Amino acid sequence: MARVTVEDCVDKVSNRFELVLLAAQRARNLSRGEEMTIDRDNDKNPVVALREIADQTVSLDSLRNDLVRSLARAPEPEPADEEVLDLIPTEQNIFGLQESSAEEEVTDLSPEEMKAAFEAEMSGRKR
Length: 127
Description:
This protein is mainly alpha-helical. It folds into 2 domains: about 5-70, Alpha-Beta Complex (Eukaryotic RPB6 RNA polymerase subunit), CATH 3.90.940; about 80-125, no CATH class. It has 7 helices and no strands. The chain has helices at about 5-10, 15-30, 45-55, 60-70, 80-85, 90-105, 110-125. The termini are far apart. Belongs to the RNA polymerase subunit omega family.
């Protein structure tokens, strides 16, 4: 077949929208390296896919199954154990530790030491 038309394929797949979906799925499969069932004849993958559907050299049921699998959502990842979460650096356990250590330094100072540290910090900023 030198030229494939939609009319050649509509006999095999009555719904034009389904035909487009199946042909697109077959073209993706060909791009991934699946074996062609007809000669390429210098055609691109979408044309080869339509020609295969028109010649009935591919199973429409397997294309439908491939299409459904490709559109299925990936399952949600399972929640990690608390032990694993402790090993994963997060903003809370990275920044939370830094803030708590800074707070401890401040609370260990007497009011006079805090005032002196504050004044030293402020005089350093003015320079």
